[in-house]
């Protein structure tokens, strides 16, 4: 039997498999790798309010192309009974990519035991979620029960369609069925996509807003001028008719 107190940490790591070195109070200490680092969700029979998290994906310029603020709850149905799991933002890892017309944001927890992925597309001046994928691998519901993974997706949809210069907001949340056994509840939900967080984008939005306001005001002024001209012509015609000789 090896005595860990007499072996230097580096030699111990080389001799014994599954040993890693960690710093503790300034000294190298051996530790054991285990599956304890993998977080496996636990289904709860009672529904709870999910913790709200903020998740973002940035492009190569460092500007956000996707921002999602939401609380996420998985609802699993087994034998007509609902079970619940809320996503913990502190355990979530965010991945994704930014394209000119397509963006993606993926939320996963350690061990990939739960994930939620959005594919977002831009069409003209609007964006929408074209595909949503989700999966959950929770701990078995009972002792002796087999491990089960729940997964599903929504495709060929135009979810949360919103002008690019605005964000989709829904305080009451959205409940989406991704499979017969799993639903995803997002409450509250706020989403925005395609270059929105930098000052240049804010200036573009402001410019667009001013342009729209200017067009509306111009149309109103033209309408008023048209009404005034018609009124003047009508009054002048009436005035001439009043002095016409019989």
Strand tally: 14
Give the helix tally.
2
The SS-based structural class is alpha+beta
User: What is the typical, i.e. mean, pLDDT?
Assistant: 78
Shape category: elongated
Report the span from N to C terminus. 132 Å
Series of secondary-structure elements, N-terminal to C-terminal? HEEEEEEEEEEEEEEH
Using the 3D structure, state the CATH architecture of the largest domain: Beta Barrel
- Unreliable spans are 9-36, 198-213
CATH class of the largest domain equals Mainly Beta
- State the CATH topology of the largest domain: Porin
Number of domains: 2
Helicity level: 10-25%
Strand content: 35-45%
The value of Rg in angstroms is 30 Å
Question: Any overview of this molecule?
Answer:
With 246 residues, the chain is of the alpha+beta class. It has 2 domains: 1-33, no CATH class; 52-193, Porin (Beta Barrel). It is built from 2 helices and 14 strands. It has helices at 9-15, 199-242; strands at residues 19-24, 27-32, 52-58, 64-78, 81-86, 93-98, 102-108, 114-123, 126-136, 150-154, 159-163, 168-170, 174-179, 182-193. The strands form 3 sheets. Strands 3, 4, 5, 12, 13 and 14 form a 6-stranded antiparallel beta sheet that branches. Strands 6, 7, 8, 9, 10 and 11 form a 6-stranded antiparallel beta sheet that branches. Strands 1-2 form a two-stranded antiparallel sheet. The chain is elongated, with a radius of gyration of 30 Å.
